[in-house]
């Protein structure tokens, strides 16, 4: 099963992504660093790894909830 893309909440409208934030080896194992501008939609997506950057308090933040393992009821 494919893992869902990572969502990062930010206070800045200018963000960058190298695809290696959580990789131990650093950016050498990610992708080229790309810079993005969050526009009126309130989010930007990396064209390489699909990581989504959501502006805190912006229009895209409404309806997005961070889910913790204890929040899911496996009934």
UniProtKB/TrEMBL annotation:
A Pfam family of this chain: zf-CHCC
In alphabetical order, the GO MF annotations are: zinc ion binding
Q: Which InterPro entries match?
A: Znf_CHCC
| Keywords, sorted A to Z | Metal-binding, Zinc, Zinc-finger
- What domain of life? Bacteria
Q: Which residues form the Zinc finger CHCC-type domain?
A: 13-53
Q: What name goes with this protein?
A: Zinc-finger domain-containing protein
This protein's species is: Novosphingobium olei
């Amino acid at each position: 099963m494919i893992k869902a893309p990572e969502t990062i909440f930010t206070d800045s409208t200018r963000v960058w992504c190298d695809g290696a934030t959580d990789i131990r080896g650093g950016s050498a194992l990610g992708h080229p660093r790309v810079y993005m501008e969050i526009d009126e939609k309130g989010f930007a997506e990396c064209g390489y790894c699909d990581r989504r950057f959501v502006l805190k308090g912006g229009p895209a933040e409404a309806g997005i909830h961070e889910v913790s393992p204890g929040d899911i009821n496996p009934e």
